[in-house]
Design brief:
Blueprint (H helix, E strand, L loop, with lengths): L3 H14 L3 E2 L24 H5 L8 E9 L20 E9 L5 H15 L7 E6 L3 H11 L6 E4 L5 E3 L4 E12 L19 E14 L5 E14 H8 L9 H7 L11 H19 L8 H19 L11 H8 L5 H4 L1 H33 L6 H8 L1
Parallel strand pairs: 1-2, 4-5
Antiparallel strand pairs: 2-3, 3-9, 4-7, 6-7, 7-8, 8-9
Helix pairs in contact: 3-4, 6-7, 7-8, 8-11
Bound molecules: serine.
Serine (SER) binds next to β8 and β9.
């Protein structure tokens, strides 16, 4: 069974074989973009290359990019724990063309990777396209031999990808995997497509425009390509499981003895396994918990995990003890983790300790007030005090 590390390297090597430059993941805090709080996809570090402001020595690239979706346009924080595949931190595999090739090559490259290298059965794949994109439809039919029923036209923003409210954007075509009739769910575009059966595994964006601050779509200098495949999602498919949390890396974090396993609560265990990754990778970049900006997002993520731990019975720091497991799982791909382990553990421990005492005080105030309420409403000033 291919583990995450092997899937990551198969992807990178495949595109290198096809002439793409392997570029390192950029930091979670974008260095080139004040409009974004965090890197939310692989294309962020190439934003200025797409728009023509910057040029590089290559016009095709491949990356495995650290991403954080816990603030700004793409924010999944509140979903984490309640679904099988939302994360605040994840890795996105992607290939990019800066004016070198467009859909005529992006689709065949993607198709050959998933059906030949990854050996996914064609009959379990379906794709969506932006409803007016006849060109993409033709390529999917001709090259991949997909039937009409496997190509679904979507006329919403789901198939028009944007990085943020401004910046590069364009129509996209998403590849879905059918996990089989054992799972609930309908194909994309139909009511009920939120289920666990049909899962998007790869988004091919045909970058064509730069949206300015007035909302106007200006053509990019050259049509380009930006693709994104969630490493955890493709790992689930290739490891024959439905939930990303059952793949090798995440399931080891879910099942770590430090994940408060004495109580069985799948939601909280997933929250903790997900959030420890965001917390550690943000600290690794020098972000510290605070009351504003990125530091506040870090604080919220850590506190959300601690609150779930509290539900499971924890009354003292436990998150810092999970760093060890994370370093074992990801230390090879990210060697800086081992170097900064002690500092990270200490920072988490301090913040947790503080929050446990805040939580105890808040919960005892709330319980006392509830006893005295007699079915009346909780007064606004108390709600504010507890929130504060
Ligand atoms: N930018 C697109 C996405 O995030 C493809 O990489 O889905």
């Amino acid at each position: 069974m291919a583990g995450l590390a092997e899937i990551r390297s198969t992807f990178l090597n495949y595109f290198k074989k096809h002439g793409h430059e392997e570029v390192k993941s950029s930091t979670l805090v974008p260095s080139n973009d004040p409009t974004l709080m965090f890197t939310n996809s692989g294309m962020v570090q190439f934003k200025n290359v797409f728009t023509g402001l910057e040029s590089r020595s290559y016009d095709k690239a491949v990356t495995s990019q650290k991403c954080l979706r816990a603030g700004g346009k793409h924010n999944d924080l509140d979903n984490v724990g309640y679904t099988s595949r939302h994360h605040t931190f994840f890795e996105m595999l992607g290939n990019f063309s800066f004016g070198n090739y467009f859909k005529e090559k992006a689709i065949p490259l993607a198709w050959d990777l998933i059906t030949k290298e990854f050996s996914l059965p064609k009959e379990r794949l379906l794709v969506t396209v932006f409803h007016t994109d006849n060109e993409a439809i033709e390529i999917w039919k001709k090259y991949a031999g997909l039937s009409d029923s496997q190509i679904i036209k979507i006329n919403t923003v789901d198939n028009f990808w944007s990085m943020g409210s401004t910046g590069p954007c364009g129509p996209c075509s998403e590849i879905f995997f059918d996990h089989g009739s054992g799972y609930e769910g309908t194909p994309p575009g139909e009511d009920g497509d939120e289920g666990d059966r049909y899962i998007e595994i790869w988004n091919l964006v045909f970058m064509q425009f730069n949206r300015d601050s007035n909302g106007k779509l200006n053509p990019l200098p050259k049509p380009s390509v930006d693709t994104g495949m969630g490493l955890e999602r493709i790992a689930a498919v290739m490891q024959g499981v439905n939930s990303n949390y059952d793949t090798d890396l995440l399931s080891n974090l879910v099942k770590s003895p430090n994940n408060l396993l004495k109580v069985n609560d799948a939601i909280s265990h997933k929250v903790i396994a997900d959030h420890i990754r965001s917390v550690v990778f943000l600290l690794l970049e020098g972000i510290l918990p605070s009351n504003e900006g990125r530091g506040y997002v870090l604080r919220r993520i850590l506190r959300r995990a601690v609150r779930h731990g509290y539900k499971l019975g924890a009354r003292s720091p436990f998150m810092s003890k999970l760093v060890d497991c994370l370093v074992k799982e990801m230390g090879e791909a990210y060697p800086q983790l081992a170097q900064s382990k002690k500092l990270i553990e200490d920072a988490i421990h301090q913040e947790e300790k503080k929050f446990f005492s805040t939580l105890e005080t808040g919960i005892s105030i709330l319980n006392k007030e509830i006893l005295e309420l007699n079915n009346k409403l909780i007064p606004g000033d108390l709600a504010f005090k507890l929130h504060d």
